[in-house]
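In response to the reviewer comment on reproducibility (Comment 2.3), we provide here a single inverse folding case reported in full, input and output, so that an independent group could reproduce the run without further information from us. The structure tokens appear first.
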């Protein structure tokens, strides 16, 4: 199951990115409803004879890849030629990711790829990053990381699932703080500050990672190269 529904812009972005995949490639499979469109499009090409192997970034993308009979491999075996993943917000080539709490594995797979292609609809594109930054942390570090985030000027909220008692637990067994920094003017410095907090596993700021951003519209796709 994916958060968010399928829309024509998401589908267009996903299909545009999936078209970049050629025979024999290893593909990083992102998480979320837009990345799911790319996985579906790739699955259809696999059904028509394309030979690829996928490296999933989450339980969700692994299940979807299996549903579409996309053979899987891992970073222990190889690295991706291309990774295709969504984002919660994009400004000037920098991303906020982690709406699905998968940003730790996403960052590992996406940055290991030769080419990282981001797929979004126009609602994700902004002048300045204002989306809260997800921070995955070890459960024991919940209070100290929250204090550290406040020290960096952020307002942390423990992520809670709506239909579940207790906090969201990531695929890695950790917790997530959504940290509101208002407008982020220096993402590089913030990324370093967050990464240095003891107990932080990974944060959702992706600075200097994306090679291409495919923005789907109802009448086509615009490709940006940061
Ligand atoms: O970072 C992510 C998951 O951790 C997703 O890529 C991000 O939340 C975008 O999802 P969607 O395409 O459903 O809006």
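Designed residues, in position order:
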């Amino acid at each position: 199951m994916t958060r968010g529904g399928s829309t024509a812009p998401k589908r267009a972005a996903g299909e545009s990115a999936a078209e970049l995949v050629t025979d024999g490639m290893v593909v990083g499979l992102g998480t979320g409803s837009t990345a799911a469109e790319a996985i579906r499009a790739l699955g259809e090409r696999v059904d028509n004879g394309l030979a690829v192997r996928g490296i999933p970034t989450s339980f969700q993308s692994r299940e979807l890849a299996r549903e579409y009979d996309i053979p899987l491999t891992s970073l222990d075996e190889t690295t991706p030629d291309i990774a295709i993943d969504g984002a919660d917000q994009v400004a000037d080539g920098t991303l906020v990711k982690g709406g699905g709490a998968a940003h730790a594995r996403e960052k590992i797979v996406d940055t290991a790829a030769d080419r990282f292609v981001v797929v979004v609809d126009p609602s994700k594109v902004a002048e300045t990053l204002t989306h809260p930054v997800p921070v995955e942390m070890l459960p024991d570090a919940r209070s100290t990381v929250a204090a550290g985030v406040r020290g960096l000027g952020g307002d942390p909220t423990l992520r809670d699932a709506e239909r579940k008692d207790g906090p969201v637990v990531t695929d890695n067994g950790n917790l997530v703080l959504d940290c509101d920094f208002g407008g982020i003017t220096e993402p590089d410095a913030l990324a370093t500050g967050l990464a240095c907090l003891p107990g932080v596993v990974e944060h959702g700021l992706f600075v200097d990672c994306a090679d291409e951003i495919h923005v789907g519209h109802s009448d086509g796709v615009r490709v940006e190269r940061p």
